[in-house]
UniProtKB/TrEMBL annotation:
SUPFAM superfamilies: lambda repressor-like DNA-binding domains. SMART domains: HTH_XRE (SM00530). It holds the Pfam family HTH_19. Residues 25-78 form the HTH cro/C1-type domain. GO terms for molecular function: DNA binding. This is XRE family transcriptional regulator. It comes from the Bacteria. Transmembrane segments: none annotated.
Length: 102
């Protein structure tokens, strides 16, 4: 079996935040005294995918990340952000359905 190294051109802050998110997932799992096998089963993903999430891999689907956060009961806490006044204004305005270039 050959080892392949995947590379990414993602910005460093993205990589750092994924690693931080992975650490938070591992911490929450341990606090809840869940084994990786149990949590991955609860989320409907493989144990190897959970391992990659806990490492902060950028190659795991966003759906798998969300499933783990949901299974841990921390999805809303992690994703909770208040909209800025500008975002609220834009949401309330009549935004175009498409943005066209050219």
């Amino acid at each position: 079996m050959t080892n392949t190294i995947k590379k990414t051109n993602l910005p460093p802050p993205v990589i750092d935040n994924l690693k931080h998110l992975g650490s938070r997932v591992a911490f929450a799992r341990k606090i809840q005294q869940l084994r990786q096998d149990d949590l991955s089963s609860m989320a409907g993903i493989s144990r190897s995918t959970l391992t990659e999430i806990e490492k902060g891999s950028p190659f795991v689907s966003i759906g798998s990340y969300m499933a783990i956060l949901w299974a841990l009961g921390i999805m809303n806490d992690i994703l909770a952000t208040d909209m800025s006044d500008e975002e609220r204004r834009l949401v309330a305005s009549d935004l175009p359905k498409r943005v066209r270039h050219g």
